[in-house]
Amino acid sequence: MILFLPPLNLHQVARTTLQGLIQETTTDSKLLDQIARIYCKDSALMKDLIQHPGILQTTLVFLYQSGPAEIQMSLNYRLGHLSTSREILDPRNPPDSVATQPVSTLEADRDQTVYQTIQQMTVSEKIRFAMKADKTARSLLIKDPNKQVALAVVECPKMTEQEVESIARSRNVSEDVLRAISKKRDWLKNYTIVHALVSNPKTPVGIAVSLLPNLKTKDLNLLLKNRGVSEAIRTLASKILKARSKT
């Protein structure tokens, strides 16, 4: 006797069944594509689906164009790396047309795409993404007006000391970010970071004062001429220099 099973109605199937299909490595690619097109706004399901070894390139492109901001950003780094613009990921564009574009154009497209995607994210999505973002995205998120988003970037394990130094010098970040950097002992072992914090007018005075004795004499002398820092910093720098001259 031959059994005829009714077709699977993906619109009514239980969530546990969907999760099982996504986790099963032998699930047909076309079925995965159908799931993606029906549940493309479900971030949790799509996060697992894009990791499936059998997922089609066209499915990934669809999710990049239609999925939640968090999924779009994840696909920036899975699909594009250095070439993440929507135009490049469009299957109608042959590889040769991309290869003829200048590198500077591709990078500009990438940066613009990252910016646009971040703008579409909710605060919670930005915070989660900040912990795994690449350098380009981190440079944007660190300036986010929401304090929790910017502080999440400081906690990103991918952050390099070179980036930290650049942030410590920036006048476009919040005092909260500079304060968070000053609490990282490992970063304060880097002299250039300490110097950047002390020299930045945005750094809270109390923090700058506590770090001031760590500066070299030549940098203290330069600080005396820096009208960008507060009078309190210059006064203390003068006192430290006088004390050093007596030893």
Ordered list of secondary-structure elements with their pairings:
Layout: H1 15-23, H2 29-38, H3 43-49, H4 57-66, H5 69-80, H6 86-89, H7 95-99, H8 103-120, H9 123-130, H10 135-141, H11 147-154, H12 161-169, H13 175-182, H14 185-188, H15 191-199, H16 205-211, H17 217-224, H18 231-245
What does this molecule look like?
- With 247 residues, the chain is mainly alpha-helical.
- Mean pLDDT is 83; it is low at 1-6 and 80-109.
- The protein contains 18 helices and no strands.
- It has helices spanning 15-23, 29-38, 43-49, 57-66, 69-80, 86-89, 95-99, 103-120, 123-130, 135-141, 147-154, 161-169, 175-182, 185-188, 191-199, 205-211, 217-224, 231-245.
- The longest helix is centred in the middle third of the chain and has 18 residues, at 103-120.
- Among the domains are: 14-97, no CATH class; 161-247, no CATH class.
- Helices cover 64% and strands 0% of the residues.
